[in-house]
Specification:
- By secondary structure, this protein is of the alpha+beta class.
- The chain is built from 13 helices and 21 strands.
- Among the domains are: about 60 residues, Arc Repressor Mutant, subunit A; about 180 residues, FAD/NAD(P)-binding domain (3-Layer(bba) Sandwich), CATH 3.50.50.60.
- It is globular, with a radius of gyration of 22 Å.
- The termini are far apart.
Length: about 500
């Protein structure tokens, strides 16, 4: 008997929707992020009704089937039209932007019970928490519990552009990124799930002489670490991406080994393999506090009960500052929203991910042909928000159509947002803080996704006594009492 498809674009079957239901997913947004339905070229138009019908048949009520969070634009709009808007006249920040629809917790029958105890409790079911749980289990520490307040891919791990690059400005970040790239290339084989890794490279464009000098300095460092980065003049850059306006930049750097992936399967792969090794992953479970005895945390309190713990790892990303505060630990990281959009499919014309330094603009082309891009906003206030704004569309459209005029007629299909987890020096917060068994794994700005595979290996070695990398001495929370570490400034967005 053949597979019965509900979503032809993403090859999602009835059986996969039923597995999502069995895992406790009842609203359409969480089923979408569990299966991938509705993310293809039709954007859910042909499959939404079919998936809704199947969930109703399985027992969902109409009230439980909350629709997708509304994402502008309501209909496809050309980038050229959006570029005609003046961002300065549009609201800044979160005012007037509808929040994400809250995740609908399953009924009691859809939630697996919490264990009474775990050797390691990981707070946060994003790529950092799940990759760490997997690496711990590989090293024999399988009594691990991962707690996620929503569903997998609900946070920044499921809301990023999927870029993975080794072009950084410090040896530490280059070392981590190179290892992550190695693991990304092997992920489909090692984990049994396709992440659509595409090694098209990153092309950084420098519009000022100061930024050209920065690229040249980075390239010398990259060569010392075995990267194939080249600094290019305008003509050479146009050989890689012919449709750029050469008046918008002076030079470029390109490393062909950088790449782009589809983020969601990373979480599916890590979660599946970790659970197969004995890790317990519990979604729809919010941490509400901690119990302590002397210099140690003894229990993690949740809205579903308390769990005794040997160690706790705070890997909650944009929510990590709040999680640390529950234990009385103050951290300086701050969450800020970063928005992304996707366009209609085009013929292949863009191999690398392109980033214009100084503007925050970046964009790449998926294997299906869509342009996927984002742009940071210096005026964005602190706060956890995953709503979408018209101001972003206007700023992004203006920037990309000036740099690549051929994009003016390309239509935007949808947009979304996730949160960066920003520290004062743009470096992570690692190691214990406040309590000997309260470990921090957060503050990775917008590059947590690309650093997670390598960082999880080193963190698992630390927690299992197999070694202590110099990262944990360089990036403890206590460094901010001394003014922080050397600032990592090669940040996109």
């Amino acid at each position: 008997m053949g597979k019965r498809l509900l979503c032809g674009c993403e090859d999602v079957s009835v059986e996969e929707v039923r597995r999502a239901w069995a895992a406790g997913h009842r609203d359409l947004e969480s089923v979408k992020r569990f299966t991938g339905f509705g993310t293809g070229p039709c954007q859910g138009k042909s499959c939404l009704a079919l998936v809704t019908r199947e969930l109703l048949r399985l027992g969902a009520t109409p009230g439980e089937l909350a629709p997708f969070t509304a994402r502008p634009p309501r209909e496809p709009v050309a980038l050229g039209a959006l570029a005609g808007l003046d961002p300065g006249t549009l609201p800044v920040g979160h005012e007037g932007i509808p929040p994400d629809a809250p995740p609908r917790r399953p009924g009691p029958d859809g939630l697996r019970p919490l264990p009474s105890r775990a050797d390691v409790v990981v707070v946060g079911g994003g790529v950092l928490g799940l990759s760490l749980a997997y690496e711990l289990a590989r090293r024999g520490t399988t009594d691990v519990l991962v707690l996620e307040q929503a569903y997998l891919n609900a946070g920044a791990s499921g809301r990023n552009g999927g870029g993975v690059r080794a072009q950084w400005s410090t040896p530490t970040m280059i070392r981590l990124a190179r290892r992550s790239l190695e693991l990304c290339r092997r992920f489909a084989v090692d984990m049994g799930i396709n992440v659509w890794f595409r090694p098209g490279g990153y092309l950084f464009l420098a519009p000022t002489a100061e930024q050209v000098a920065r690229l040249e300095q980075n390239a010398r460092l990259h060569a010392e670490h075995g990267l194939r980065t080249r600094v290019l003049d305008r003509a050479q850059a146009l050989e890689i991406v012919p449709h750029l306006d050469p008046s918008r930049f002076l030079a470029a750097s390109h490393n062909p080994d950088d790449g782009v992936v589809f983020p969601w399967p990373f979480l599916w792969g890590y979660a599946g393999k970790a659970e197969a090794l004995g890790v317990q992953v519990r979604t729809f479970t919010r941490v509400t506090g901690f119990r302590r005895a002397g210099a140690a945390l003894t229990h993690v309190e949740t809205d579903r009960g308390a769990v005794a713990c040997g160690a706790v790892v705070n890997a909650a990303g944009a929510w990590s500052k709040g999680v640390a505060a529950l234990a009385g630990v103050a951290t300086p990281n701050r969450p800020t929203r970063h928005e992304i959009l996707v366009t209609e499919p085009l013929e292949p014309w863009l191999d690398p991910l392109v980033s214009l330094l100084g503007s925050g603009l970046y964009f790449s082309q998926s294997q299906r042909g869509e342009l996927v891009g984002g742009m940071g906003d210096p005026a964005e206030p602190e706060g956890v928000s995953q709503g979408s704004s018209l101001r972003f569309l206007a700023r992004f459209a203006g920037a990309i159509t000036r740099l690549a005029p051929r994009t003016a007629g390309v239509k935007v299909l949808r947009q979304w947002a996730g949160c960066y987890d920003v520290t004062p020096d743009n470096n992570p917060i690692l190691g214990p803080a406040g309590f000997g068994n309260f470990f921090q794994l957060h503050g990775l700005v917008g590059h947590g996704f690309m650093m997670a595979p390598a960082l999880a290996e080193l963190y698992a070695d630390l927690l299992t006594g197999r070694g202590r990398d110099e990262l944990f001495d360089r990036f403890p929370l206590s460094r901010f009492e001394r003014g922080g570490a050397a600032r990592e400034d090669f940040i996109i967005g």
